[in-house]
């Protein structure tokens, strides 16, 4: 997704995160369970929360099975929250009121199986 579609989806995800997920499942922030108040600046958090939100809509919405909410808690909520709030996870180094950006791991060649780069002219 990109452009307006990405912005719409990110807004919907943000509303769900701020009005459903965090009030009910947020728990206290500690060094053992960090959370970043600027979670949307962590690409990993966006990806995991987006999947969690889609599963929530599928398993708790109209027409979902009676055991859908229990399955969502067991199969999606717990693993995602454990991953996000792991002391070495995406919010490592973030503290309440203090966001810390993460450096991406280095990559030697962006497309190692693509065509070789064109020679540069001097």
UniProtKB/TrEMBL annotation:
A Pfam family this chain is assigned to: DUF4913
Positions with biased composition (Pro residues): 113-122
UniProt name for this protein: DUF4913 domain-containing protein
Species annotation: Streptomyces ortus
Highest taxon of source: Bacteria
InterPro entries in alphabetical order: DUF4913
Region: Disordered, residue numbers: 83-122
